[in-house]
Amino acid sequence: MDSIFILTGAGISAESGLGTFRDKDGLWTRYDLRRVATPEGFRADPALVHDFYNMRRRNCLEATPNAAHEALARLQRQRPGRVTLVTQNVDDLHERAGSPEVIHMHGELLGALCAACGHRWHAPERMAADDPCPACARPATRPDIVWFGEIPYRMDEILERLSRATLFAVIGSSGEVYPAAGFVEEAAARGIATIEINLEPGSRRDLFDRGLHGPASETVPRWVEELLQA
User: Fold this and answer.
1) Which of 62, 112, 139, 159 is at a distance of 20 to 30 A from 47, taking alpha carbons?
2) Which domains does the chain show, CATH number per domain?
3) Which 8-state DSSP code applies to residue 130?
């Protein structure tokens, strides 16, 4: 039985109005990632980090899923148990499009985490460093986001699911940030078919068996329809 493993990145949400990171106008060209996306940055200036993620959370809540999110949700619903959807994104657009299961390897904007006791809860629209944890009451609230230098969530499960796949697809991701950048190499080593679906060919395009290029809202629905008709 076929098993599809899909990795999505910022490019799939760009048409929903959420910024990508590495383009010339991307987030990392406007913000110093060392100050807003590392544990060290949070320790140095938690208020700045919260302001950054409060802004991103507000943008997320104002965005709506696009045709690419909806197509992947349809694929999951019509191939129950046979599609693993892993995202590097911290928005909830896959869920709002109707995807029944999404693995957020880099955390979620709508989640809060206590840096003291590890308790997790749903984040309010605005968070502050002195917000008390609902579990331990300590003022150690942080976004439930995997920052640079931290280990992505659920990696053992992700790699186990990838090992069972018959098709590996990357959608809207530069494929340059590890450990996700290594997924295509793992897939190729196991003889798993690979496809890159991006606005334009990425720097690692030679590692993929096939490429579909153009806006995600156009390429992803076309690819999903192809799979469902096969």
Assistant:
1) 62
2) 1-18+65-106+151-230 (3.40.50.1220), 23-62+111-145 (3.30.1600.10)
3) T
